[in-house]
User: Fold this.
Amino acid sequence: MKLSQLTLYSGRLLFSSLHTGGRRCVASVRRQSRFAKDKMASAKSSMLPISYLSQVEAQNVDIDLMNEFGYEMSQLMELAGLSCAVAVTQQYPRDNLTNKGKVLVCCGPGNNGGDGLVCARHLKLFGYSPCIYYPKRTDKPLYNGLVKQCTSFGVSFTTDLTQYSDYDLIIDAVFGFSFKPPTRELFIPVMDMLRETKVPVVSIDVPSGVDVDNGDAEGLQPDMLISLTAPKFCSKLLTKTHHYLGGRFLPQPLIDKYKLTLPEYPGTSLCVKLSSPE
Assistant:
């Protein structure tokens, strides 16, 4: 090969390398920019004032959504459960977990349990391996349908809580904002497990059994909380918790009615991180 040919050939190689590297560099910068924007949106949301709902207000918001805005309970559960599953994937990516996403989903008999059933189904679709503990099933078409959907997607059910340490995560969907003490005997074992386990616990909307308005410093302290529609007052005491907000379905007239100040959701996300452990 002549010198001139070698120089030309080397120049093409150099140009190709620079061109390819430049594209990679630009792509990397763009990815970092998107990541930075998401981080900034999350940080910004944690700095802004945010509204909290009392137990009565949370109940009234659900009533208004159905009576004034045409939602059905099945829609609210689907949207809430999906946003919870998305939040879990953001905080605990499957590939970062020891058992590749083995999740125990503990469901109660009410709406919070319904959110948990939906969350389990979507986690299955996202590549996780959820198993549902559902000690008291609600014999109504809505809940029977949710159970059938889970089984149709291959989500398993269990009655055994003794092997909870084998899971990567535990989803707490036992009691929601309508809970009133005392805890029924059937749910004492799962409540004891949630308080004692070293496995990360993710609570849906409120930590089960906690006073919604006043919180409970001695109650369940989850590793992650996914508030729905708006945080409840009890979440103020959770200083060691990854706190997310989900349920991106509040109409503006309803936000105005309750004078809610809520963070902006980044992009098309179904959830937004409010705070990290102090």
User: Anything to note?
Assistant: Residues 1-46 have pLDDT under 50 and may be disordered. Strands lie at 102-107, 129-133, 156-158, 169-173, 201-204, 224-228, 242-246, 271-275. The first strand starts at residue 102 and ends at 107. DSSP finds seven helices and eight strands in the chain.
